[in-house]
Design goal:
The chain is mainly α. The protein has helices at 3-19, 37-55, 60-63, 76-90, 109-131, 139-149, 153-158, 174-181; strands at residues 99-102, 105-108. The chain has one domain: Up-down Bundle (Four Helix Bundle (Hemerythrin (Met), subunit A)). Helix 1 (3-19) runs parallel beside helix 5 (109-131), helix 2 runs antiparallel to helix 5 and helix 5 crosses helix 6.
Length: 186
């Protein structure tokens, strides 16, 4: 799969998890310290909203604070759907070839799309765990994420974007191993 397909599939996986969130679950705590379900979904809506301007060449300062705060409003499901459609439309083969201007410097578009892919995939598991949903992730997506993450895991950890990896048994499956590398205990 190419980066566009990976991104789109991970957004779809997260979408299926959001669709399962009922009204009483939005305040449910997740395993991410200080984050409830609403905060987690808002985080991905925020990423989705940033995707079109960044992939079209905007800089952080061009966007400013327009995506700060609560982006879910009174209809979190609709807000998620709208942002997911916008992000998927922005993530194209052409866009993945551009340079993206991120807070830590210029980055190849492909690398940015892989970051988005990984965040949607891993947070799909977080959301499923929080709401008692299906925690299984597509093995192809897990494999692709694990391959990409090898080269950036240390940078993520040094930046504080992920916690320490918990111990896992030597015979752990690929999903359990990947989640551990992202600081999760499956």
């Amino acid at each position: 799969m190419n980066v566009v397909e990976l991104h789109h599939k991970a957004v779809d996986v997260f979408d299926s998890r959001v669709a399962a969130v009922t009204e009483e679950l939005w305040d449910q705590e997740t395993e991410l310290p200080g984050w409830d379900v609403r905060t987690l979904v808002n985080h991905l809506v925020n990423e989705n909203k940033w995707t079109p301007p960044l992939l079209s060449g905007s800089r952080i300062e061009d966007v400013g604070d327009r995506f700060d705060g609560d982006l879910l409003g009174a209809d979190p499901q609709a807000s998620w759907k709208e942002s997911a459609a916008e992000a998927k439309a922005a993530v194209t083969e052409e866009a993945s070839q551009r340079t993206v201007h991120l807070s830590f410097g210029d980055t190849p578009g492909r690398d940015y799309v892989m970051q988005l892919f990984a965040d949607h995939l891993i947070h799909s598991w977080d959301l499923a765990r929080a709401v008692g949903g299906d925690e299984r992730l597509d093995p192809e997506l897990v494999w692709a994420c694990a391959q990409w993450f090898q080269s950036v895991e240390d940078d993520y950890r040094k930046a504080g974007a992920i916690g320490d990896a918990p111990s896992i048994p030597p015979d752990a499956d690929e999903q359990t191993a990947l989640l551990a590398r992202f600081g999760r205990t499956a």
